[in-house]
Structure prediction request, 399 residues.
Amino acid sequence: MTNRSGLEPITVSQLNNYVKYMLENDPRLRSVFVTGEISNLKDHYSSGHYYFSLKDGGAVINSVMFASSVRRLRFRPEEGMKVIVRGRVSLYDKTGSYQIYVDDMFPDGIGALAEAFEQLKKKLEAKGLFAPERKKPIPKFPDTIGVITSPTGAVIRDILNVTQRRYPRVKIKLYPVLVQGAEAAAQLVEGINYFNQTDGADVIIIGRGGGSMEDLWPFNDENLAYAIFGSNIPVISAVGHETDFTICDFVSDLRAPTPSAAAELAVPDSQELRARYDHLKNYADEICVSRLVGYQTFYDNTRRTADNLRDAYFTRASFALEKYKSAADSLADKRLSELESSIKQLAAAAEQLNPITVLKRGYSVVLKENKAVSSVKELNSGDNINIRLSDGEINAKVN
Prediction:
């Protein structure tokens, strides 16, 4: 049946389908960014979908976010939160409801970002990702440091400068990434996984220079937090300035206030190591000299004691011999023989303690700069040395 205009009437379904077709085929409505306040939020736990309204001071639009997109969110939306959504405009033909299908959502403004940050921080802390007992120790003498940062920023230059000054032998491996923007978080995760899969570093430094909360937001990514937590390689976080804090800082094994500080924490100071080595070497030399002096003193004391004992025995024997000579010649001879045997034993024992005796058996002492040499590692080709034998010294040069 036609109306007065002569047009054939259409059904409600046909009308809704036509409007839906027009909306979905308008290129300007296929991907739009809309800002507004969340209202009437319904979280369908069974399906995982979000249903809500997005409103401003003058209008409201129904919104749907399906579970596949919800799972990618970095924060939990709440009633009254101001957000920016990205999605497509369409029409639900069953009810004729015009709405936006949301693919992604971001907090709008510093306040919302801070709230999202606190939400994620509490969630991860409750799961034990920040527990001190789960932190891995940083190796004291790393061979290789993996650095995850921008290849063009100041971070990598600062790390190279510090490590070359403090510990030149360490190798630096750079995994270049974006450090801000939508793709940065995924690249940071890839960097952590790369070093773990290739066993390519002893410690990892992840970081960037300072910036706003929005600039640092990739380092608050939940997937990055789990990647750092699951890393077999210790991770040092060096994100922003000393007053900046990110989720990356809390979950890492060590937090550095700046990238330069991270480099200092990752490697020892070679000059301090050299000074410590020299101190220990001097201490060992002093111990050796002290023991040699002690042995010489012991020998001298023992020899004097033996001499005193011998003199005492001879004196006593002489008196006895004079007193009993006529009556006990045989007894005196026997006694004298016993005394002489005892003295010889003492003298032999004393002689064994004499370093000169050791040299007479074919041994020698090698001296370099008047210090005893105990290992060939202490000598270099061309060194002048003295070889002390039992009957003199030989000057020589090491080939």
Observations:
- The two ends are 118 Å apart (CA to CA).
- The first helix runs from residue 12 to 24.
